[in-house]
Amino acid sequence: MGQRITTVDAFTSKPFGGNPAAVCVLSDAKEDSWMQLVAREMNLSETAFLLREGDAYRLRWFTPTNEVRLCGHATLASAHVLWEEGFIKREQAAKFQTLSGSLFAKWNDGWIEMDFPRLPVEPAPAPEALLHGLKTSVLFSAKSTPAWLVELESEEIVRNIQPDIASFKKLDLDVLITARSKSTEFDFVSRYFAPTQGIDEDPVTGSAHCILAPYWSQKLNKNEFRAFQASQRGGFLRVTFNGDRVGLIGQAVTVLRGELV
Q1: What gap in Å lies between CA 98 and CA 105, rounded to an integer?
Q2: Which domains does the chain have, with CATH numbers?
Q3: With DSSP H G I counted as helix, E B as strand and the rest as coil, what are the percentages for the chain, rounded to 5?
Q4: Hey, what's the torsion of the CAs at 55, 75, 111, 191, to 10 degrees?
């Protein structure tokens, strides 16, 4: 029997929305080169690989071109698969050991709640390649890990912008744009571009909200948010901020189960 693989749409309650991630629950350790080839074959923004270690799972994330240190939507998808396919019971927390330390997820009445580290932001002038790529005025810019954070003038600009991706490829970081929402449905909106990792636009980026939560907490003087990532697929998150930790809360849907032969 080959390696089972599951595709999950994360940060959505309906199939074909949110951000798709592939998940492999491994029975034994695999070489990095094999995992990278599988991620390239799946050609999704991330493919997650899990290996049981005691009462937790070693979790690694690969884009089609490289391994990343932190990924929200593929962690959400991984927890969803562990519960749905019976690897752990829903009343048990999903525990992960990652390149970014220990992460946790718990099931709560159809929602998956994850605990992630805050990613600090340091104000910095936007480089020319970033400004050229955005082709619009910037209210604020800062460097974080792994992205430039840019606040734009309005939600409409964030939703409708068509950036010059070629310019973003000249940067050493991804690009995260955001604006305050004009509606009462959401507190802020965002989009995320990562062409240097083989992803022109990531549909919904959980880890980006580890940057956005502390930023908007300071601006809006609150610690709980309703966030929308305004990609073509779109995705909704509930976000909390508590000092050095960020809570990411979302839903997930299995759309495909297969086997690597």
Answers
A1: 13
A2: 3-113+249-260 (3.10.310.10), 122-243 (3.10.310.10)
A3: 20, 45, 35
A4: 160
Q: How far is residue 169's CA from residue 146's CA, in Å, rounded to a whole number?
A: 14
Give the per-residue pLDDT at 1. Answer: 72
Picking from 111, 149, 155, the residue whose alpha carbon sits closest to that of residue 10 is: 111
245: which 2 tokens?
């930790």
> What is the chain's mean pLDDT, rounded?
96
Kindly report the length of the chain: 261
Does the pLDDT value for residue 172 go beyond 90? yes
CB 185 within 8 A of CB 192: no
Please name which of 98, 8, 3, 89 lies closest in space to residue 46, comparing C-alpha atoms.
8
The pLDDT assigned to 196 comes to 87
Confidence bin at 29 (pLDDT 50/70/90): very high
SS3 133: helix
Distance of CA 152 to the CA centre of its chain: 21
What is d(CA 151, CA 182) in angstroms, rounded to the nearest whole number? 14
Q: Taking the mean position of all CA atoms in its chain, how far away is CA 194?
A: 11
State phi, psi for 184 to the nearest 5 degrees: -85, -5
Query: Annotated catalytic sites, by residue?
Result: 46
